[in-house]
Amino acid sequence: MSFRVIQWATGGVGRAAIEAIRSHPELELVGCWVHSTEKVGRDAGEIAGGEPIGIQATNDAQALLDLEADCVFYSPIVADRDEVIRILESGKNVVTPLGWFFPGDRDVRDIERACQAGNVSLHGTGIHPGGITERFPLMISALSRAVTHVRAEEFSDIRTYGAPFVVGEIMRFGKTPEEAAQSPMLNVLGGGFFESIDMVAESLGFDLDAERQTHHEVAVATRPIDSPIGPIEPGCVAAQRFTWEATVRGETVISVRTNWFMGEEHLDPPWTFGPEGERFEIEVTGDPSAKVVFHGWHPESIAAGLERNPGIVATAVHGVSAIPTVCRADSGIRTYLELPLVSGRAAPHLGRSEGA
Ligand SMILES: NC(=O)c1ccc[n+]([C@@H]2O[C@H](COP(=O)([O-])OP(=O)(O)OC[C@H]3O[C@@H](n4cnc5c(N)ncnc54)[C@H](OP(=O)(O)O)[C@@H]3O)[C@@H](O)[C@H]2O)c1
Predict the structure, then answer these.
(1) Model pTM above 0.85
(2) If you measure from the C-alpha of residue 72 to the centroid of ligand 1, how many angstroms do you get, rounded to a whole number?
């Protein structure tokens, strides 16, 4: 049996999701929503950079809500909560990298009602958040006794992230330190990362202090630095480090950090990624302690990253891999804590043949 899937938005994540849906043996792409009018009517396979597949992209949300489908992979630039509710009420499961990783005590009664009305479930997943900051640390923590600290950290060259408006205007690279200090990123990203922190705390049983800690540090360019958003002038922001933390009686027990640099040269302070380079890291301090480093989710060059960023592909594939499990789950918001283990699938030429 195959599950019928609609792709909602075709940015970097959406295009990678179309590829992943098409190569998954249990999934069939049946619809595609686009935001930009110039994509309306184009073939979804071609939008994703491949062959035509006979699915025309549309910006008619109601037509897609009326379409018979099992799941929507929801990846626009921002989540429209009312839209997610309408999708759920129309009887389609939703998988998304935009939120709902672990609602905890946040008010999600409207989402839960929509899930019950449509008899479907909603799953938030990705890599950061949605993997590195909670799912994988929890798995690793099972091998340690008496855990005192869980850390998840990203080290990335932000020049490979192909979203110039986000990098320049929202993250505020290239602006003055004073302008960058007003960046909404701590709050925007904190929404998801604090869900991850809550999931780790809930599972490990940390008795968290009510107040959470956030830190924002910047490094400025000492010489003009070339970047996809134009030159970063001396004295302007060329690297940023965001940290979200939770404490128990003042002692830090869970940390999430992003290190986003416009390269490693001409920075003040002279931050570097260190000898291990770009990576994602998870560290669990306990008995025994463990550190896991993930390579492979960073592109080999800036040009390659702007073309097809492996971290964006991993985000999409983590969600697409979950679709069959989410479609089979009981209705409601379903997090990693409720769903069975999700795995990838064999390449089509190495998979079991039909009926074998
Ligand atoms: N959790 C994770 O690990 C993770 C990782 C990466 C990204 N994300 C999140 O996933 C989302 C998509 O990321 P992305 O890299 O694909 O972004 P992107 O390349 O910038 O694409 C976002 C898409 O959103 C659509 N869009 C633009 N303006 C819109 C508007 N006003 N209303 C609705 N849709 C609009 C466009 O769709 P069309 O092109 O179809 O017109 C655009 O291509 C972002 O929210 C990002 O933060 C999460």
Answers:
(1) yes
(2) 15
Residue 264 shares a structural domain with residue 167: yes
Number of structural domains found in the chain: 2
Q: β-strands 237-248, 251-261: how paired?
A: antiparallel
Ligand 1 lined by 128 (C-beta under 6 Å): yes
257-285 pLDDT, tens digit each? 999 999 999 999 999 999 999 999 999 99
Per the CB < 8 A criterion, the answer to whether 315 and 16 are in contact is: yes
Ligand 1 centre and the CA of 311: distance in Å?
14
Q: Which two tokens stand for residue 102?
A: 């672990």
Report the range of poorest mean pLDDT among 85-89, 250-254, 345-349. Answer: 345-349
Residue 97 domain boundaries? 3-126+313-350
Do 265 and 149 fall into the same domain?
Answer: yes
Query: Nearest Cα to 241, choosing from 149, 169, 306, 154?
Result: 154
Report the DSSP beta bridge partners of residue 202: none
The CA radius of gyration of the chain, in Å to the nearest whole number, is: 21
Domain check: are 257 and 149 in the same one?
yes
13 lines ligand 1 (CB under 6 A): yes
**Among the listed residues 258, 283, 287, 285, the one whose alpha carbon sits nearest the alpha carbon of residue 273:** 258
Calculate mean pLDDT across residues 236-246.
97
Among the listed residues 322, 297, 267, the one whose alpha carbon sits nearest the alpha carbon of residue 74: 322
Q: How many residues does the chain have?
A: 356
Structure tokens at 217: 């540090």
Give 97 Cα–ligand 1 centroid separation in angstroms: 10
Q: Mind listing the pLDDT tens digit for each residue in 7-19?
A: 999 999 999 999 9
332 lines ligand 1 (CB under 6 A): no
